[in-house]
Amino acid sequence: TATGVCVLRRDTVHEGSQLLLSACLSCDGCLSEEESLKISQQSLEEVERVLALNKKCDVSKHKVLVASICPQSLPFFAVKFGLDITEAAHKLCGFLKTLGVQFVFDTTLAAGFSILESQREFIQRYRRRHHDSHALPMFTSSCPGWIRYSERVLGSLVTPHICTARSPQQVMGCLVKKYFSKQQKLSPEKVYHVLVAPCFDKKLEAVREEFYNSLLETRDVDCVLTSGEIYCLMEQRKVSVEELDSVPLDHVLGEAGDVALVRHEGRGSEGFLEHVFKHAAKELFGLDVHEITYKHLRNRDFQEVTLERDGETLLQFAAVYGFRNIQTLVHRMRKGRVPYQLVEVLSCPGGCLSGRGQAESEAGGKVDKVLIQQMEEAYSSLPIRLPEVNPALHTLYQEWLQGQDSQQASTLLHTQYRNQSHTQPPHMQW
Ligand code: SF4
């Protein structure tokens, strides 16, 4: 595209003019002119413009800068800085604060909301599966590459099956603009919210119209920068990591919040499958699942998990990563042969640590496998904490959302999907 942003740059292969099976299905006219313009504002230059305005005398144009870092970005900085993940997070926070960012958060808290809401929605869908043909399978909703592909290419075959829980990024946007800004006695448009993420696709998600407040002319997430873009900026400015201050991250609950870094289950993508699986086993069948055993089907990125009792299969979930595997899944869906109640779908092979905003080799084009392995090791060094036992989530459900079943929780933590008619690219080989 004109902006160089392609949502499906992962296992795309072009041979002559033919688009192969593994190729991106929505490349053809992927971005409208309007979207291109919005995406062009998701850049370092835009952040620098906002920072420059803060130095001018006209205080009416000043904004409070807030940065939220995805936990999938932190292992990248840990490897690049040669530090453990917590120390790397503190150095990154120190760097962002030297730029003029006032608050730096970690999005794990927001991911906790996404997980809890996905768990609740799964139980509701499971219970209405006999009278709602769209209830199951439920597809996870955290990956904007997958969402875009579903909306533009697959349409009604898939969109009613996508979990309506907002992604961690967009829950974080909501937390910053609708909770934190209020605590700071600031109008949402006075806060400029930057999100540091592992992939470019998050930029497309940030500019979706449902996350834009047209009255105040502000977005929940104003700008997404990839880990690689931040690292490039550090290199351009010849920043020495040793000389950076180590600054602990902030918490949206202020002093009351625990800023110790934790992670969710799974291989680095918040583990929606594992969380929902364990929750559903307990909630629906009264079974405690401590360990999850994956069965590799086609490859490491197409795996299955089952819950059995007395020879009967109670639950059957799958993790499907990368467009090759997604196309297999869609093919089975068209034939009505998807046995799963839930599928965790991610468009990057390997999941979010392999996002192209951080995992591409310096030569470009391919993923850096050594870097990914190092990132996986760094990520797995963090302790796991279940969102169910995170006191900050309980506080926010009560104080901000008026409880888990409230209208407020449903409005602010969920979204919807559109079917956007779009022709499939020519020469597509299924
Ligand atoms: S799977 Fe890839 S495209 Fe999807 S959210 Fe993760 S990093 Fe981004």
UniProtKB/TrEMBL annotation:
Domain Iron hydrogenase small subunit intervals: 365-421
Pfam families: Fe_hyd_lg_C, Fe_hyd_SSU
Highest taxon in the source lineage: Eukaryota
Cross-referenced PANTHER family: NITRATE, FORMATE, IRON DEHYDROGENASE
Similarity-based family: Belongs to the NARF family.
Protein name: Nuclear prelamin A recognition factor
